[in-house]
From TrEMBL:
InterPro entries: Membrane_assoc_protease, NA-bd_OB-fold, NfeD-like_C. Keywords: Membrane, Transmembrane, Transmembrane helix. The keyword Transmembrane applies. It comes from the Bacteria. It is a multi-pass membrane protein. The chain crosses the membrane at residues 6-22, 52-70. Signal peptide: none annotated. This is NfeD family protein. Residues 84-141 form the NfeD-like C-terminal domain. It is found in: Membrane. It comes from Streptomyces durmitorensis. Pfam families: NfeD (PF01957).
Length: 142
């Protein structure tokens, strides 16, 4: 009961797929694709040396090309801001005087507690201010 080389390559590809699922490291997936390429080479009658070369070449090429692209996509911020991230940079209207110790603003149709970013600044009712950040349930404005 002799098992063909291409079957061993497919077993190797499946074995490399297990850590891919468990660790979410895409490199294992790229090695697994390389093993499938080795299986195809074996199935087409390529020798052992050629199978290993194809495995290595495909794996290295995928890691060299796909990994930087994936890292670039992972580091990009999402274009759609939600929650408090969507409130940063918005304009609000002062309802009650806002200074370093507090106040109230109307932001996105809701009333928020607010404080000024610059402790020496104060903003009177009716004035428009820009939201710099959200600190807990308080908008920091300038």
């Amino acid at each position: 009961m002799d098992i063909d080389a291409w079957v061993w390559w497919l077993i190797g590809a499946a074995a490399l797929g297990i850590p891919l699922v468990l660790t979410a490291m895409p490199e294992f997936g790229m090695l697994s694709v390389g093993a499938v390429a080795g299986a195809v080479t074996a199935g087409l009658g390529g020798g052992t040396v050629l199978q290993v070369i194809v495995f290595a070449a495909v794996s290295v090429a995928l890691i060299a090309v796909v990994r930087p692209v994936a890292a670039r996509h992972r580091s990009q911020r999402p274009e759609l801001a939600t929650g408090v991230d969507a409130l940063r940079g918005r304009t609000a209207v002062v309802l009650e005087r806002v200074d370093a110790s507090g106040g109230r603003i109307k932001l996105a149709g809701e009333i928020w507690s607010a404080r000024s970013l610059d402790t020496s600044q104060s903003y009177e009712a009716g004035r428009e201010v820009d939201v710099v950040e959200i600190d807990g349930a308080t908008a920091v404005v300038m």
